[in-house]
């Protein structure tokens, strides 16, 4: 795992999450901005999948459990599409909030993944 | 399928899935996903180290899944299941949370409820009261609510948009 990439990813997911929650509480239905921020979060997660596949091969192995890391990563990758699907079906203001909750959950999971990779002792 | 209930449409309206209730369901879903994933890892990798703690984690994960489903599903039975699962969670997080602080020797390994769900941003402690408040505000008023009719679903949809 690349540390600055993970931190950037956490930061972007937090911003996206707060943005969606604020927009949702302001009464906005899911729009391009909401879905776009989720898409950005998802693209970065897919980038993280690539990093996680390559890193151990180039001398950057995880210190913690690789299985636990992948359970988090796969769960995180599933969240933005699930939230977006919800937004496409529901189209209410609370769907926007749900998108925000999803993005914040991704932020927490990426941070936890970073912990597993860097500081946790196996 | 098209059998119509004698109860008025109003009695079949249930707002359980309306408005902010949807956010509650989403948070429950995420927590269920996280707890299930983590407990799977614990069981696969190191079940022998702490069978009780990890079995408890797995049980909690299953209950979170059940609670999520029960919040979504209509009808009186699911409403009761929602109450039961949420009460179970609340009891679990309070009892295990207290024990993990007072008698840490009993819980040397993390469970979802250790330290009142610290590993999960205390969401396991906050969520059940919110869920109970939500359920109390949206009781199933009529047995006819057990009928999953188009009318009821439309009503819920319309309400959610309001």
Description:
- The complex is a heterodimer of chains A (122) and B (162).
- Helices cover 80% and strands 0% of the residues of chain A.
- Chain A is mainly α and 122 residues long.
- Chain A has one domain: Four Helix Bundle (Hemerythrin (Met), subunit A).
- Chain A is elongated and about 50 Å long.
- The model of chain A has no long low-confidence stretch (mean pLDDT 91).
- With 162 residues, chain B is an all-alpha fold.
- Chain B has one domain (16-138).
- Chain B is built from six helices and no strands.
Q: What's the shape of chain B?
A: elongated
Largest beta-sheet characterization of chain B: none
**Mean pLDDT over all positions of chain A:** 91
SS content category of chain B: mainly alpha
Q: Report the CATH architecture of chain A.
A: Up-down Bundle
Query: What composes the largest sheet of chain A?
Result: none
Low-confidence stretches of chain B: 1-14, 143-162
Number of helices of chain B: 6
- Relative helix content of chain B: 55-70%
Rg of chain B is: 18 Å
CATH class of chain A: Mainly Alpha
Transmembrane segments (chain A): 6-26, 33-57, 69-89, 94-114
Keywords (chain A): Membrane, Transmembrane, Transmembrane helix
Protein name (chain A): Integral membrane protein
Organism (chain A): Agromyces bracchium
Tags for this entry?
heterodimer, A: mainly alpha, Four Helix Bundle (Hemerythrin (Met), subunit A), B: 162 residues, mainly alpha, 6 helices, disordered N terminus, membrane (chain A), Integral membrane protein (chain A)
Helices, strands, pairings?
The complex is a heterodimer of chains A (122) and B (162).
Chain A: H1 3-25, H2 32-54, H3 66-90, H4 93-118
Chain B: H1 9-12, H2 21-46, H3 51-72, H4 76-102, H5 123-137, H6 150-161
Helix pairs in contact in B: 2-3, 2-5, 3-4, 4-5
């Amino acid at each position: 795992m690349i540390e600055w990439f993970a931190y950037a990813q956490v930061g972007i997911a937090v911003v996206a999450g707060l943005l969606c929650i604020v927009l949702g509480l302001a009464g906005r239905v899911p729009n391009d901005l909401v879905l776009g921020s989720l898409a950005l979060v998802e693209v970065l997660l897919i980038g993280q999948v690539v990093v996680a596949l390559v890193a151990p091969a180039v001398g950057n192995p995880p210190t913690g459990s690789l299985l636990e890391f992948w359970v988090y990563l796969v769960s995180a990758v599933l969240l933005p599409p699930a939230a977006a699907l919800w937004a496409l079906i529901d189209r209410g203001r609370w769907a926007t909030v749900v998108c925000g909750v999803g993005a914040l959950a991704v932020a927490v999971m990426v941070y936890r993944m970073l912990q597993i990779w860097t500081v946790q002792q196996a | 399928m098209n059998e119509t209930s004698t109860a008025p449409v109003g009695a079949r309206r249930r707002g359980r899935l309306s408005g902010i209730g949807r956010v509650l369901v989403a948070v429950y879903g995420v927590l269920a996903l996280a707890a299930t994933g983590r407990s799977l890892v614990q069981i696969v990798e190191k079940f022998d180290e702490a069978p009780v703690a990890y079995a408890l984690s797995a049980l909690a994960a299953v209950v979170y899944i059940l609670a999520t489903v029960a919040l979504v599903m209509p009808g009186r039975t699911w409403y009761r299941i929602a109450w039961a699962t949420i009460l179970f969670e609340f009891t679990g997080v309070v009892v295990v949370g207290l024990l993990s602080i007072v008698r840490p020797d009993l819980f040397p390994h993390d469970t979802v409820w250790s330290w009142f769900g610290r590993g999960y941003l205390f969401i396991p402690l906050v969520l059940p009261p919110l869920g109970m408040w939500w359920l109390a505000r949206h009781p199933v008023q009529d047995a006819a609510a057990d009928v999953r009719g188009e009318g009821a679903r439309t009503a819920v949809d319309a309400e959610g948009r309001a």
